[in-house]
Hints:
- By secondary structure, the chain is mostly helical.
- It contains 7 helices and no strands.
- The longest helix is centred in the middle third of the chain and has 23 residues, at about 115-140.
- The relative contact order is 0.26.
Amino acid sequence: MKLGAAGGCWLLLTLxxxxxxxxxxxxxxxxxxxxPDARDCDVAQFKTLAPRELQAFRxxxxxxxxxxxxxxECPSPLFPRPWDLRQLQVxxxxxxxxxxxxxxxxxxxxxxxxxxxxxxxxxxxxxxHIQSQLQACALAQPTAGPRPQGRHRHxxxxxxxRLQQAPEKESPACLQASVTFNxxxxxxRDLKCVASGHLCV
Length: 201
């Protein structure tokens, strides 16, 4: 499936790696050449997830919500309402989604060592599979296409920086809450948008 121009995506993936690896706070998306076989690309399968997979994420969210302190106060949401991948160009969206996935996997992986371990097994497996498919599809992109425009590039850079700085600016509890409550939006909106390519408008 074609998600955009490899030239533009390579530029933005390089930016992602540079920003996210600066403090090693969030795992950067793997370099394009790291995936063994681009023929494995099949992001279109994620336009709709199986009901049992979505239920596993809902169960994880509900389990975490039951453990939250009632007086938990967070300064601002990590994923605010304007966070909408449709604001990015088509080939920029996988870059943002990979960064979002990297932070999510890191935070959930830490939480898996707690009492939530059992309920997080399936979500972590699903998210890891999605991440590998995104890397495969990055390899399958064509070599020609439009370069990023200033406005769009600035927005993507701002989002990547926001994700990179989150572990430093947010308390562990607020970071866990932000990531957990963003799970369904990541799956139902962001992932579906990337899987739909140019049809996501």
